[in-house]
Design a protein that fits this description.
This protein is α/β, with parallel strands linked by helices. The chain has 2 domains: about 110 residues, ATPase, nucleotide binding domain (Nucleotidyltransferase, domain 5, 2-Layer Sandwich); about 190 residues, ATPase, nucleotide binding domain (Nucleotidyltransferase, domain 5, 2-Layer Sandwich). Helix content is about 45%, strand content about 20%. The strands form 2 sheets. Strands 3-2-1-4-6-5 form a 6-stranded mixed sheet, sandwiched between helices. Strands 9-8-7-10-12-11 form a 6-stranded mixed sheet, sandwiched between helices.
Length: about 375
């Protein structure tokens, strides 16, 4: 079965057609498009593409309704629209792509795969917020977690690289890109993660704040007179590395500025790295140990500097990095020394393969 994977993010759309061996036979990366521009771009891609048998859609938030991949129908489409408030930056672009491809290829099966699904079975102790039961029940408040498709693939692939099944390992998977999250994957199952009810919780990100004291938000709202929409804009788009450095949310720019002596950029990078290190410790505690740390995502894959600086603060986990391998690696691989108490692995993010596999499994006769 050849599968078209439509991976819609908050600012981009990645299209990949995978054959039965999961080789990419066609692909295109697009920016954020709406309306007629989106339809025109998809029509153009389909006109040039080889045939395919099904379409898999990445949807960031499935809420408490969708905990496994689901075949798209009218009822599913209606329910998806009720979840928009849970991920206002991410779900609407996915819904727009679903609408257009549904019109362009109505004869093919469409399958929705959710970033939250991998974390749906987290233990209650990890998924429950310490707020009144009435709140939790009225609004389905819980820690959902995100980047699940990436964490699932990274943990599966890391097992292959380490010569074991992920079902035998305790892994901390670190998806580090413009957004970032860590997951504790114990014996194939997500048991904890850093993102929560929304993708704002957890690590410092490119323009998102990550976890901050809720009392700070109340203070700013009271004294600054900020509306919820204004607060959301600042926390989503004006915080994180951008807010700390005052110049850029791009990790590469921040590192370059820090190396030139920019004190704000240096602080931004130090805060960013420290949050990752402490989160690795927290995920390790959730599993009562760790066998391997797995880096994935744009920054996790590309920045040897970031990996080295994170691992430098993990000597208590007996991490021993192979410096030359870390510096030279350009694909999947193990970058720790054989004597390292915790293995360190780099995995190229392949959400497309995870989605295509889920599509084939769901549609298998």
């Amino acid at each position: 079965m050849q599968v078209l994977v439509a991976n819609a993010g908050s600012s981009s759309l990645k299209l990949r057609i995978l054959d039965g061996e999961d080789d990419v036979v066609a692909g295109r990366d697009l920016g954020r498009l709406d309306g007629s521009e989106l339809e025109g771009a998809l029509v153009g891609f389909l006109a040039d593409s080889p045939p395919f048998d099904a379409i898999g859609h990445r949807v960031v938030h499935g809420g408490s309704v969708f905990e496994t991949p689901v075949r798209l129908d009218r009822d599913v489409a209606v329910t998806l629209r009720t979840l928009t408030d849970l991920a206002p930056l991410h779900n609407p672009p996915a819904l727009a792509v679903i609408d257009v491809l549904g019109r362009l290829r109505p004869d093919l099966p469409h399958v929705c795969c959710f970033d939250t699904a991998f974390h749906a079975g987290m233990p209650s102790a990890a998924s429950t917020y310490a707020v009144p039961r009435s709140w939790r029940e009225r609004w389905a408040l819980r820690r959902y977690g995100f980047h699940g498709l990436s964490h699932s693939w990274a943990s599966r692939r890391a097992g292959e690289l380490l010569g074991a099944s992920r079902g035998e390992l305790r892994l901390v998977t670190a998806h580090l890109g413009a957004g970032g999250s860590l997951a504790a994957v114990a014996f194939g199952r997500s048991v904890d993660t850093t993102m929560g009810f929304t993708p704002l919780e957890g690590l410092v990100m490119a323009t998102r704040s990550g976890s901050i004291d809720p009392g700070l938000l109340l203070f700013v709202q009271r004294h600054g007179g900020m509306t919820p929409d204004e607060m959301e804009r600042v926390l989503e788009h004006e915080s994180g590395l951008l807010g700390l450095s005052g110049s850029s949310g791009d990790l590469r720019d921040v590192i370059a500025s820090a190396d030139r002596g920019d004190a704000d950029a240096r602080l931004a990078y130090d805060v960013y790295v420290l949050r990752i290190r402490t989160a690795v410790g927290a995920m390790t505690a959730s599993m009562d140990g760790i066998d391997a740390l797995v880096f994935t995502g744009g920054a996790g894959e590309a920045s040897a500097r970031l990996r080295a600086d994170v691992c430098r603060g993990l000597r208590h986990l007996a991490v021993v990095l192979d410096t030359s391998t870390n510096d030279d690696l350009s694909e999947d691989g193990v970058i720790s020394q054989p004597e390292s108490g915790t293995a360190v692995v780099v995995v190229v993010a392949r959400e497309d393969r995870e989605i295509a596999s889920a599509v084939r499994t769901l549609l298998a006769p």
